[in-house]
């Protein structure tokens, strides 16, 4: 165990210590609660080394779009990613750029067809063109706001072909009752957007500018979708 989670060096992890550490995965409390319940098999609120390993594997599954269930434990996934720079499990940016994109080729073709049908300009769709597609999903407004935040990776208020595919992927996940993550997992960052120096999955959500001078420029036209979404983490 790393001293970060086993502060007493007792060979086990208390719920309070584990919660602080696991939150650095960027997953929602709902997902982390499910992971804890599966890992803490005897319900004592303490994880031994084997149970903590199970929790880490489930974090990796969730970050890569797989079900949080014991049946996912045997599936091949990259190591879990945490935003703490002291973590021994932190993936370097170069390694994370090798993670295969979670959007499958056949799904990408479908998303591309929708993208082209919305008449992109210079390969970009403005927020007002994307908004009806998002609203058509009938998902809650706060979820759609988070989908927009996560998919507009370069924060330009427009979605290119790859960013639109991310938005559609997240919408379909949400429709399947999969939780929309708080930060974009490395596996969902399009290869075209990956930078060797940064760590995808540890990207903060940048709140829109608050000054009246440039707020109308920095907020996308779907700003109303994000209105209920917390601007900071």
Automatic annotation (TrEMBL):
It comes from the Eukaryota. Coiled coil: none annotated. Residues 27-62, 139-174 form the EF-hand domain. Transmembrane segments: none annotated. The keyword NAD does not apply. One of its GO terms (biological process) is endosomal transport. GO terms for cellular component: clathrin coat of coated pit. CDD domains: EH. Keywords: Calcium, Metal-binding. Gene3D superfamilies: EF-hand (1.10.238.10). Residues 1-83, 107-195 form the EH domain. This is EPS15 factor. The gene is Eps15.
């Amino acid at each position: 165990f790393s001293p970060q989670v086993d502060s007493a060096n007792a060979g086990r992890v208390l719920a309070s210590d584990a919660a602080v550490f696991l939150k650095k995965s960027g997953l929602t409390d709902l997902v982390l609660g499910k992971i804890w319940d599966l890992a803490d098999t005897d319900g004592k609120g303490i994880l031994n080394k084997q149970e903590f390993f199970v929790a880490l594997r489930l974090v990796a599954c969730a970050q890569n779009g797989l079900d949080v269930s014991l049946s996912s434990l045997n599936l091949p996934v990259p190591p879990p990613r945490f935003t703490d720079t002291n973590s021994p499990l932190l993936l370097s940016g170069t390694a994370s750029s090798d993670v295969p994109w979670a959007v499958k080729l056949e799904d990408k073709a479908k998303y591309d067809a929708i993208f082209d049908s919305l008449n992109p300009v210079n390969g970009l769709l403005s927020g007002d063109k994307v908004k009806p597609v998002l609203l058509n999903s009938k998902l809650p407004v706060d979820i759609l706001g988070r989908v927009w935040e996560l998919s507009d990776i370069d924060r330009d208020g427009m979605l290119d072909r790859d960013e639109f595919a991310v938005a559609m992927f997240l919408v379909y996940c949400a429709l399947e009752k999969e939780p929309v993550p708080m930060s974009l997992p490395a596996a969902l960052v399009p290869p075209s957007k990956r930078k060797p120096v940064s760590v995808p999955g540890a990207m903060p959500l940048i709140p829109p500018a608050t000054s009246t001078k440039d707020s109308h420029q920095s907020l996308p036209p779907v700003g109303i979708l994000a209105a209920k979404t917390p601007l900071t983490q």
